[in-house]
Amino acid sequence: AIILGAQTIITGNASIVVAGGTESMSNVPHYLPTLRNGAKYGHQTLVDGVLQDGLTDAYGKKEHMGMQGELCAQDHSITREEQDAYAIQTYKRAQAATEAGVFAKEITPVEVSGGRGKPNVKVDRDDEVKNLNEAKLKAMRPAFQPNGGTITAPNAAPINDGAAAVVLMSEAKVKELGVTPIAKIRGWGDAAREPERFTIAPALAIPKAIAHAGLTADDVDFYEINEAFSVVALANMKILGLSDDKVNVFGGSVAIGHPLGCSGARIVTTLTTVLREKKAKIGVAGICNGGGGASALVIENLQ
């Protein structure tokens, strides 16, 4: 959405675009597909909307994307222990950033009902971040591949609700309105490969985006790579030769959450926070889109 918004402005079709996404995974219903025209006879089966429309590969084997995460771990020799260690790290980074207040400028507080007779509750921090239990995390059984599997519920992104958005504006409109921009889009890239290897598509999109920005990897200060699973970040870091201290430094989706339609805008928003807090210049955000695709965006800090 952000890339399309930028292109809309560049082509002169708009001067201001709001781009982002939202997902309420906890409210996705179960479907009764046969009832549209009336089920005449026999048992009917409920279909989980999250699994059917969000977490199942629509191509190939029609399998859960967790199985494709296992394929990624196998392809790149990434162990269960490495994934657990990464998950613990991302929780601790997110906890430290939350307690330090660095997310305060990017999170809009929301009031939710406290229940009958109780006052409303103000939600001003990501809920999952606090839920780290290292001993339990290390003891969890594999979620998708019982024998020899490496991906578990806690070293993968949880089911979450969330929304994120950014305001894009042409340079002329910025000057006209007298607003102070926080970042500038320098370039972008899209790439795709076999659907079952969607996990490593960001490793194709990120170099394209950097080249489109007229930069090299040496120019990049920090990266945000979406963590559908811990193995996704680990594999892309391995392929691109990225240092651990430059990627998801305030935690990632395993701890913060991965509401599907929200995460692209969320990691870009967090990247602006990282660049501001670290007093850095160039950042790259990369995310796999499912179906084998990925997108990446290069931004320059103006804060």
Q: What's the helix and strand layout?
A:
Elements: H1 2-10, E1 16-24, E2 30-31, E3 47-48, H2 49-53, H3 65-75, H4 80-99, E4 110-112, E5 121-123, H5 134-139, E6 161-169, H6 171-177, E7 183-192, H7 202-212, E8 222-225, H8 230-240, H9 253-256, H10 263-278, E9 282-290, E10 293-301
Parallel strand pairs: 8-9
Antiparallel strand pairs: 1-6, 2-3, 4-5, 7-10, 9-10
Structure explained in plain terms:
- With 303 residues, the chain is of the alpha+beta class.
- The chain has a single domain, classed as Thiolase/Chalcone synthase (Peroxisomal Thiolase, Chain A, domain 1).
- It is 33% helix and 20% strand.
- It is built from ten helices and ten strands.
- It has helices spanning 2-10, 49-53, 65-75, 80-99, 134-139, 171-177, 202-212, 230-240, 253-256, 263-278; strands spanning 16-24, 30-31, 47-48, 110-112, 121-123, 161-169, 183-192, 222-225, 282-290, 293-301.
- A four-stranded mixed beta sheet has the order 7-10-9-8, with helices on both faces. Strands 1-6 form a two-stranded antiparallel ribbon.
- It is globular, with a radius of gyration of 20 Å.
- This is acetyl-CoA C-acetyltransferase.
- Its cofactor is K(+).
